[in-house]
Amino acid sequence: MHSSWIPRGNYIESNRDDCTVSLIYAVHLKKSGYVFFEYQYVDNNIFFEFFIQNDQCQEMDTTTDKWVKLTDNGEWGSHSVMLKSGTNILYWRTTGILMGSKAVKPVLVKNITIEGVAYTSECFPCKPGTFSNKPGSFNCQVCPRNTYSEKGAKECIRCKEDSQFSEEGSSECTERPPCTTKDYFQIHTPCDEEGKTQIMYKWIEPKICREDLTDAIRLPPSGEKKDCPPCNPGFYNNGSSSCHPCPPGTFSDGTKDCRPCPAGTEPALGFEYKWWNVLPGNMKTSCFNVGNSKCDGMNGWEVAGDHIQSGAGGSDNDYLILNLHIPGFKPPTSMTGAMGSELGRITFVFETLCSADCVLYFMVDINRKSTNVVESWGGTKEKQAYTHIIFKNATFTFTWAFQRTNQGQDNRRFINDMVKIYSITATNAVDGVASSCRACALGSEQSGSSCVPCPPGHYIEKETNQCKECPPDTYLSIHQVYGKEACIPCGPGSKSNQDHSVCYSDCFFYHEKENQSLHYDFSNLSSVGSLMNGPSFTSKGTKYFHFFNISLCGHEGKKMALCTNNITDFTVKEIVAGSDDYTNLVGAFVCQSTIIPSESKGFRAALSSQSIILADTFLGVTVETTLQNINIKEDMFPVPPSQIPDVHFFYKSSTTTTSCINGRSTAVKMRCNPTKSGAGVISVPSKCPAGTCDGCTFYFLWESAEACPLCTEHDFHEIEGACKRGFQETLYVWNEPKWCIKGISLPEKKLATCETVDFWLKVGAGVGAFTAVLLVALTCYFWKKNQKLEYKYSKLVMTTNSKECELPAADSCAIMEGEDNEEEVVYSNKQSLLGKLKSLATKEKEDHFESVQLKTSRSPNI
């Protein structure tokens, strides 16, 4: 689709996308003058600037007037700039900065006037639909309704009113069509004294259809009576035809008389509009169109019993407006001590029935400064509820604006497209009424005393109606303070602040793993961590980044992450010193801004916009991957390289949107990485480069050495050195790789005395050992020798006994000379120590013994 400025009759409309489009007009001035124009600029998702260049394309000295201020809905602002003589090139430039998610409301410009130009050399005839009845007129006048004119007309010609009609500024008349159901609407009259309301049917004004044609329908008969709906809760009917608010201190459900609240209770103030017979006193309705005045003075919305619906209007592109004014929000007396950020909330139930590009806008104005669009719905939407939370006590105006189509149409094609609002509920309204009573704390004097506010962090005990402090590590509910159940336990790993208004992490976390205690200290990461993610590009080619700020823990639960909208520096109408009505600073635990670099759109500085809160409530910290329906899938981030468990911080945002009906949530995975010192590195899942895959749940991985557990005695071991000079050294070293930080320090190296042995003692010990070995060897040798001798002796005895007739020879254990020792086995030619001893023994035998031959003598008598 080609982006450009589009003429819309008596005004021109800017683009609605994220392209940069300029409306350019060149003019040559004979003398100094000025340029003046009127405009509507209500949506700061469009960047609107007006500047002037000379014929050298140099920007003129009008920097202070470059940024055009925002206007309120339906109001035309004016802008004027002085012009120098010579050539002036005027630029009206718009840039959409909404990243393609929804259509924006365009800038409208009309009545551009330039003074200082040379006199014209000729007069131009009036265009068709306009006229001039005086010579030398400055401009032409528009023909009124039901008239027309041709080019150069001096007056307008009337149409045949019974069969023709025309809009303002028409060049011809149009035949009136037959009437259809799209040409009338119904209304409900206020209740009469009998408690009845009448259904009335009216033609849409101005009436352009004919009833006298054959296929035309006639207006249905009016006057059908129906029972009036009951009064809204907090109101009563005192026998009259109207409803009145209950007096202070009383309540009613709308069907009964007002009754005082019982002792120990107080009215729950607010508004609950669910019956629509007449428009409530603090609501009003109107209609406007930027291009015509057809619907000025009309009701934009009509009551219809159990709902209120959009009215007919004058054109299909009218804005049908419904306003609700509330002067302030204040919690009940008993809840004054609940220091939560929520003061109240407004909830409405609606549905849209559309056949074209209808849009319902919900807008909020704070202290009558500027109306901002909070949410919008396009096309047909089923019956649903939407809640907006109030965080500050101020004067609020809530606006519902319905537009059937943004295209101007001469005929009515979408009259049956409508929006219905069934109920609007506002809690804790300052001037509200009560439909019920809630328990309150009583003074200690007597049971019937008036309600008193409880101190911060105290609930109302049911038995005594006295204030009692919430237990440790619980926070007080912002919705009710009655009973101990009003104190809600904090999530895992979190604690409550002193007044029990919020839960937070003090940056310390403890985990038991395999009989080992892991203590984490994230204090050095408590300052805000940042991540610039991108670049990304819109469908139109706009380059942008997502910038995230994370306030992890500490600071007594204060939200330290800030995201700015610097576009408001140029576009807000006025900023009162010290005023925080403009939320150009967004504070949260986690927030996101969209950054458009200066080179992307030709701005002088980078543009930060669309700051949104991703997390304003801390849920808990745990090593588990799931907490309160927030789940970190295993494949979302790389597998950790160590056995040290990751620690997960979980947050949520209380603000709901049409795409995130439960609000946004955030999970931050803290991973021990000794190589990432200091603040470490923050990253997003590779599968979800924008940090989220569904736009509602955001995931971050924060790697840092500061995310490692504190060191303990399990993280180091000892090494014992050798004993030197009577001393032994013991060293302590960290286990590698080191998966801890801070904690205990390594013990100092330890020196211990050790015993040294004297040299001569060593020699003596050696000699003794040698002697012992020698004695053992000799013992073995002589034992073996003895065994051999016994063997010889036994052999000799056996030989002697075998010779019966011979005298026994003399016993000899010696080895005869020349006799070989058959049993001796020689293992080596070289004599061993045992061999030498053997030789010595043999020699001694040869020297001391002689072999004697014994002669046997026989008895002669034998």
TrEMBL record:
Keywords in alphabetical order: Cell membrane, Disulfide bond, Glycoprotein, Membrane, Signal, Transmembrane, Transmembrane helix
Statement: the UniProt record of this protein carries the keyword Transmembrane: yes
The Gene Ontology biological process annotation of the record reads:
positive regulation of BMP signaling pathway
Principal cellular location given in the protein's record: membrane
| Domain MRH, first and last residues per copy | 505-710
Q: How does it sit in the membrane?
A: Single-pass type I membrane protein
Query: Entry's Gene3D superfamilies?
Result: Mannose-6-phosphate receptor binding domain, Tumor Necrosis Factor Receptor, subunit A, domain 2
List where in the cell it is found. Cell membrane
Tell me which GO cellular component terms the UniProt record holds.
Answer: plasma membrane
Recorded superkingdom: Eukaryota
- Coiled-coil stretches are none
The record's annotation in PROSITE patterns points to: MRH
- What Pfam families would the database entry show? ELAPOR1_C, GBD_ELAPOR1, GBD_ELAPOR1-like_3rd, MRH_ELAPOR1_9th, TNFR_ELAPOR1_6th
Q: Which residues span the membrane?
A: 759-783
Q: Which family does it belong to?
A: Belongs to the ELAPOR family.
This chain belongs to which protein, by name?
Endosome-lysosome associated apoptosis and autophagy regulator family member 2
Ranked from the top, the taxonomy reads: Eukaryota, Metazoa, Chordata, Craniata, Vertebrata
